[in-house]
Amino acid sequence: MSDTYDILVIGAGPGGYVTAIRAAQLGFKTAVVDREHLGGICLNWGCIPTKALLRSAEIYHYMQHASDYGLSAKEVSFDASAIVKRSRGVSGRLNGGVGMLLKKNKVDVIWGEATVESVAKGNEPGKVTVKETKRAEAPKGAKGAGSYSAKHIILATGARPRAIPGIEPDKKQIWTYYEAMVPEAMPKSLLVMGSGAIGIEFASFYRTMGTEVTVVELLPQILPVEDAEIAGMARKRFEKQGIKILTGAKVTKVEKSANAVTATIEGSDGKSQQISAEKLISAVGVVGNIENLGLEKLGVKTDRGTIVTDGLGRTNVPGLYAIGDVAGPPMLAHKAEHEGVICVETIKGLHTHPMDKGKIPGCTYCHPQIASVGLTEAKAKEQGFQVKVGRFPFAGNGKAIALGEPDGLIKTIFDAKTGQLLGAHMIGAEVTELIQGYVVAMTLESTEEELMHTVFPHPTLSEMMHESVLDAYGKVIHT
Amino acid sequence: MPINVLMPALSPTMEKGNLAKWLKKEGDAVKSGDVLAEIETDKATMEVEAIDEGVLAKIVVPEGTADVPVNDLIAIIAGEGEDVSAAAAGGGSAPKAEAKPAPEAPKSDAGQNTTAGDGHMSYARVNEAPDAAKPSAGGAPAPASSGGRVFASPLARRIAKQEGVDLAAVQGSGPHGRIIARDVQDAKASGATKAAPAPQAAAEAPKAAAPAPKAAPAGGAPAGLSLEQVKGFFQKDAYEEVPLDGMRKTIAKRLTEAMQVAPHFYLTVDCELDALMKLRETLNASSGKDKDGKPLFRLSVNDFVIKAMGLALTRVPAANAVWAEDRILRFKHAEVGVAVAIDGGLFTPVIRRADEKTLSTISNEMKDFAARARAKKLKPEEYQGGVTSVSNLGMFGIKQFTAVINPPQSSILAVGAGEKRVVVKDGQPTVAQVMTATLSCDHRVLDGALGAELVAAFKGLIENPMGMLV
């Protein structure tokens, strides 16, 4: 029970379990603590199960439009419970996979709620108390509640949905992503509060399944972190699909009746309106899980609900580290994984660099998909860059036409002076799989020249990435 | 792909080391965690652990090679299922890793690195570690092996061209020392553009390391008399030549520097030890025994001296400080180094928080330090830092001496033997046990009066040793 670990990770989400595996690979005696599920929100209640739902919606959409492809599909319908069952099955399978990976790498799994009692001092290791949890049953082979010691303690406790006072989720009529992911039936109408990736993905899913969807966004633009041009195109497409969108609008009050929620929504012009829907999804962001970890007692520095670190995962308390959502935005699984690896490699003494947060891609899996990396056009100008902007529409690409996906755009933003690729923004079919090409280019510090000299295979959607670059320099072929 | 094993940086300041011994032969299977080689650094001997699996395909740097620059290729490991001879051949003809600067080892705050420690270090692997630290002030930029290929990102090249920055003079901080855009911008900001002579200096540097030319003696110490000049004073058969090991070079370099840079002055005081000797006897008699029947602690006079120095520093906070270029760093707790003589040199492991620790803790820590110092198994973080040091030559019968301050510290206490002397008390001659101690002070930090205050606080504690128990 009182074995000393070299590294103890609290939280087995995508950041935590990857951190633990990398630590084990480096030869550290490693354990990971979780209270609910291996793979965290991402794998169990986030990224992965929503992709399964959206895949069902996508196929349903194609079936409804089978005749566009010369096919016929009659009486197309769906079984909500089967869709949810498939989604849960995908999570379950991957969840088991994480367990196997941890076992294979000889990482101990400890089940329960962890509190850091002390950090390592001199030869004295840090102490972590793990209390029993009733949230979920422990996986096979996991260690239980007790006192554990470790030389290095890494917090990877993630984040949870933000609750707005007066509009707290009740799990019945006001949902968070948890409930939205496992509907018993598709609601007739739905109000989505917040138009970030989570809100928009659910809006897109439910709209495709036939639900009347209204999205309310406080800011003047949906998908607020995306390039304004791309977000504007997305909005048009969503509205064409029948999603009602209110921007610059604030939900001021929510009243619940037996069968509906009625939201009072105040527009930027000060006028109020009331919208009723069967369900409301609160998707107004997430907040870090920094409570009950013992941080106050240890004097760990936090800022706006997340732990302050030095870019290599170190907190202000030696021996204590934080990575992923709990260490601050952007709250993305791939950022968490990367931070975790940097953190343990730093502990090992390998030479590491803090992550460049300007090169973390973001993907939204609505229909059409949206993907981006780097600066938006507005941000680039704001930072004083003279920009060259390239655009290439899906309508000019052979593969896109053949796929029946002629709507979309790939936009690139270059620094006119140096040719540095500052940002790339995409909307359309499969763009979430394309963005990585630009991420590699940015990481290698390519200029427009290398991108122009790169051969892109024909016929692929990726050719548009080439053409967009060419367009920025007035050399585009297919428009 | 074969894995290139590079000379690791075992401490943040290490630039080169001696390859003391290979513990694996060519053709030996290697597992992660196996000790590959022993590296002798400035002061310690460290084991290099493998972090890969495979077969040691080729040893590039034979054992016994001195002054191997950090990040030089020292061996090649063929991965599992790889052709060992091909790996060896391929790796051997591969361009020698350019003299990249030492990977920035993380600062060792509170045992940051201790897990990897225990006297073991994993090596810098070509595909993992060797990024670059910033060029040290005045150091010739390394990657510019004249005529060789300069690795730089496309964006870095373009900015360099636009801004007129000579890439050969830029230190790369990207993977494998590749120059990235930020490096060029930094170089431009620091004015290191068009540094024409720099590449040449860098090209000569590798040669300079081996045969010890006049300009840069191998010891790294400022040049005094040249080898020829010194030899000229003696008969040829009157001496034997003793090559310098890392420790000797470090001592020569650091202490020469200390004498030249830190203005020393000396304060000498006599301390009466009778009360201390009595207390020591009582305390030692009261020590419990462990299961082998050995006493749990056995305090030496020096343990009291360390503790007294620690407490004195916190009582005179202005003296608990060191000089740092353009400012003074003042400390809350006392870090007291203790000189430990070993065969061929000395170590000064540092007792952290000597003000807070009990005498028995200090005593046991010192025993451990001394044992490991003799085995050259101290970790760099254990002998770096410190505000002051204690050097005790009492056991050699030395009555009084002065010591050279060990940078970055600001003082050092030279302690002589405790001996019976005639002293005058109340106008009457009487016999007391007396120890003479001399504090060397760095005048940049301590003025005479401040130094005297520190010495007085020390003397007070030694003569009224009960003060050290509470």
TrEMBL record, chain A:
Gene3D superfamilies: 3.30.390.30, FAD/NAD(P)-binding domain. Disulfide bonds join 42-47. InterPro entries: Class-I_Pyr_Nuc-Dis_Oxidored, FAD/NAD-bd_sf, FAD/NAD-binding_dom, FAD/NAD-linked_Rdtase_dimer_sf, Lipoamide_DH, Pyr_nuc-diS_OxRdtase, Pyr_nucl-diS_OxRdtase_dimer, Pyr_OxRdtase_I_AS. Signal peptide: none annotated. Binds 1 FAD per subunit. It is found in: Cytoplasm. Residues 360-468 form the Pyridine nucleotide-disulphide oxidoreductase dimerisation domain. Its cofactor is FAD. GO terms for cellular component: cytoplasm. It catalyses: N(6)-[(R)-dihydrolipoyl]-L-lysyl-[protein] + NAD(+) = N(6)-[(R)-lipoyl]-L-lysyl-[protein] + NADH + H(+). Keywords: Cytoplasm, Disulfide bond, FAD, Flavoprotein, NAD, Nucleotide-binding, Oxidoreductase, Redox-active center. SUPFAM superfamilies: FAD/NAD(P)-binding domain, FAD/NAD-linked reductases, dimerisation (C-terminal) domain. FAD binds at residues 51, 325, 331-334. The active site is at 458 (proton acceptor). Its EC number is 1.8.1.4. One of its GO terms (molecular function) is flavin adenine dinucleotide binding. The keyword NAD applies. It holds the Pfam family Pyr_redox_2. GO terms for biological process: 2-oxoglutarate metabolic process. Belongs to the class-I pyridine nucleotide-disulfide oxidoreductase family. The active site is a redox-active disulfide bond. PANTHER family: DIHYDROLIPOYL DEHYDROGENASE (PTHR22912:SF217), DISULFIDE OXIDOREDUCTASE (PTHR22912). This is Dihydrolipoyl dehydrogenase.
UniProtKB/TrEMBL annotation, chain B:
InterPro entries: 2-oxoA_DH_lipoyl-BS, 2-oxoacid_DH_actylTfrase, Biotin_lipoyl, CAT-like_dom_sf, E2/Pdx1, E3-bd_dom_sf, LAT1, PSBD. PROSITE patterns: BIOTINYL_LIPOYL, LIPOYL, PSBD. Residues 2-78 form the Lipoyl-binding domain. CDD domains: lipoyl_domain. GO terms for cellular component: pyruvate dehydrogenase complex. Binds 1 lipoyl cofactor covalently. Residues 86-102, 130-148, 187-220 have a biased composition (Low complexity). GO terms for molecular function: dihydrolipoyllysine-residue acetyltransferase activity. It comes from the Bacteria. It holds the Pfam family E3_binding. Its cofactor is (R)-lipoate. It catalyses: N(6)-[(R)-dihydrolipoyl]-L-lysyl-[protein] + acetyl-CoA = N(6)-[(R)-S(8)-acetyldihydrolipoyl]-L-lysyl-[protein] + CoA. GO terms for biological process: pyruvate decarboxylation to acetyl-CoA. Keywords: Acyltransferase, Lipoyl, Pyruvate, Transferase. Residues 86-120, 130-149, 184-220 are annotated as: Disordered. Residues 151-188 form the Peripheral subunit-binding (PSBD) domain. It is an enzyme of class 2 (transferase). Its EC number is 2.3.1.12. Forms a 24-polypeptide structural core with octahedral symmetry. PANTHER family: DIHYDROLIPOAMIDE ACETYL/SUCCINYL-TRANSFERASE-RELATED, DIHYDROLIPOYLLYSINE-RESIDUE ACETYLTRANSFERASE COMPONENT OF PYRUVATE DEHYDROGENASE COMPLEX, MITOCHONDRIAL-RELATED. Belongs to the 2-oxoacid dehydrogenase family. The pyruvate dehydrogenase complex catalyzes the overall conversion of pyruvate to acetyl-CoA and CO(2). It contains multiple copies of three enzymatic components: pyruvate dehydrogenase (E1), dihydrolipoamide acetyltransferase (E2) and lipoamide dehydrogenase (E3). This is Acetyltransferase component of pyruvate dehydrogenase complex. It comes from Methylobacterium gregans.
